[in-house]
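Entry, Tuesday afternoon. Goal for today is a structural model of the target with adenosine-5'-triphosphate bound, before we commit to ordering more compound. Inputs were pasted exactly as handed over by J.K., no edits. I checked the ligand SMILES twice against the vendor sheet because last time a stereocentre got dropped in transcription.
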Amino acid sequence: MSTPPALHAIDVSIIYGQGDTAVRALDTVNLQIGAGEIVAMMGPSGSGKTTLLMVLGGLLQPTLGEVQIRGQSLTGLSETQRARLRLTLMGFIFQSYNLFPALTALENVQLALELKRRPSREAAPLLEQVGLGHRRHSYPAKLSGGEKQRVAIARALAGDPGILLADEPTAALDTKHGMAVVELLRTIAHEQGRAIVMVTHDPRVGPMSDRLVTIADGKLVAAPVQYGLKSDAREHA
Ligand SMILES: Nc1ncnc2c1ncn2[C@@H]1O[C@H](COP(=O)(O)OP(=O)(O)OP(=O)(O)O)[C@@H](O)[C@H]1O
């Protein structure tokens, strides 16, 4: 039997609101992401990128269709069960880092380890893995944007998740630091076998990913240029 994909959206639609004010934010989306694959998701503002990321992360239930994580359907799970899956299988990375300003880099990661109930894992090696071992005792205010995002990535790795979901992780960074963060995420996907989905507005991120998924008006569309290893258009035609 073949291994199920890390993430699988099957005919997913999301309709916000009802009646005249209803918005179809996602329209019959089909998407598979495998372990060890880094996928960039692009599209105009309001096209449904964040909504799709939230659905893939089990933070939002599809109006129609379903999401499977490693072959397990999220449909019918309680909020507590979905929260447990998120805690054990997923890490989240945000544009604005969301670090605790009163905690050092090390303490930010340690707190995540405690919340994820991972007493056997240590924060310092996670910071070293993202190239920040030497800044472990620095507070976020003393770190550059790129360094803050690296702490946020170390924190997202605290639970040793198979899946990382990143919402515009480079949006607040200059080109050099932004590309270094994407390079780090790419290494994490390829060397550690994690599935990574990254929403981005930056056209330079697509070529650094294994696959570029383009979304317009809530639908996945074939990208004008296909990058990397696989083509989403081929896979989901
Ligand atoms: N909670 C909500 N209630 C109603 N409509 C919503 C809600 N969240 C998003 N929408 C609508 O759904 C559509 C998709 O929004 P979404 O935030 O997923 O787009 P996006 O591609 O991430 O946009 P951006 O690039 O601007 O962040 C938009 O039309 C948006 O106005």
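Residues 16-17, 23, 25, 43, 45-51 surround adenosine-5'-triphosphate (CB under 6 Å).
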